[in-house]
Amino acid sequence: MSEFQVLIAGAGPTGLVAANILGMFGIRTLLVEANASTVSEPRAVSIDDESLRSMQYLGLIDEVRSHIVPGYGSYYYSASGGCFAKVVPDIMEFGHPRRSAFRQPILEGQLREGLKRFPSVQTRFRTRVHRIIDRGDSVSVELRGEDGNAEMVDARYVAACDGARSGIREGLKIGMSGSTYDQRWLIVDLVGSTDRFRHTRVYCDPARPALALPGPHGTRRYEFMMLPGESAEALVEEKRVRELLARHSAEDAGLEIVRRVVYRFHARIAERWRAGNIFLAGDAAHLTPPFAGQGMNSGVRDAHNLAWKLALALRGELGEGVLDTYESERKAHAWSLIQMAVKMGRVMMPMSPWNASFTQWGFRALSLYPPARDYVMQMKYKPKPRFDDGLVVHGVGAELCGRMFIQPMVETEAVRQVALDDLLGNGFALIELDQPGVDAAPVSTLPLRRIRVIRREERFVAANSAASNSGATCVRDVSGAIERTLSGSGVRAVVLRPDRYVAAGVAIDAAPGETDRVLQAVVALSQRGAPTGVQSAPVDIRVEEWQPGS
Is 409-509 a domain of CATH 3.40.50.10420? Predict the structure, then answer.
């Protein structure tokens, strides 16, 4: 098969998630990777609730959950060793813990294994993208294997998930704005730990800021700030590494070291995320400081946002204009998380005793005011995506539109409690409160699942069965969260996109046929205007400098 609908360059988490989603929709996809396999060494170590929700969407949540430390937090320590703050979120509005520890090699292996479910997806490792010719209506890609032989394949679109040193981005001459910091950190990954403490320890010591992060299966990561005058070569020597570890844990100082490397962190974002039929995603589009653990998670959000739009546009269920909403929806949120990580870095690495004392005083002051304490404790400071410009019909239900919908547990007629997403399928969904006389299934060109929600005080009756016969799945709102969310925003129904964001709301007092009008409005948004990314003339891109493994 030399003709594909989508070619993905890069088999990191971003590319693997995108390939799985495209496979779920039956899109002919080719995933290529320069390396011989997925990564074998630890890289990202934190997976958040939104990314776990994406794993649930992929049908891989059970496999992923079996290899994580769920729901860990952070304890902050002063130079004297006292704990002056704890951030341990326990809310799960999206159905999963806010933060969990994981192993990237395991996750990538699970995602790669998941691709075997889809005959429409091919993978080729030890294969480089060497050249791309974008003709406007299609893309020709020159691939080169280990033997250096060239092969041309055609695709409709290309997703560049080829990492921080993206050769495709460089070939497109797309610049990166933001900063690269001189400050460098030493990362040390260990195995064999018996430490039962399940949270991150943040050592806010001006003499040497450091972190110790938990991991599954007895793994542990340390990060140490590199001081002025130190050399990376000397810092990574095993003797020196073990001396640094011994300052915090005699046990950890004796563990097996599986990785030690010095890195410089970046806070940068691509100026454009689309050029013609080529899209940037993951580290190719943005580089995030590690302090918030959002680098990989932002890439997963990119993949989820882009892949379903590519799939539905290729299937003709949405117009190609939907592809222009990818950058407008994702770029601002990715940048807000980068800024959050920079601010968190200032807390984690105080540069003077005065800065450290001021930070500790601030945390103690917050603890005296419960709303402020909970704002920090529950990680409410983490920016949530809010799509003001994209595939969202604004107006009715303004508080919900453009936001990710909650995921509570619901009860089916078989008296079985399930997570809401497990009933939604892969496409659009309509979540509606049960109302007598509103049983007719919407007539729309947009295929969708329909979920009819009865209140937690009510029981399933014949009327609910009638709704089921009209195509709706009836569920009981076990916690009342769905009713509170919808009624509190003045709507009786919301249209959910495949990424679980609210595309539109239907008013409580809406007239018959209003749901159809709303669905038509969503489809119309995807057909609005000509796609702005289309090239007016063929573009020939050389990707000779692409660096594998980034």
Answer: no
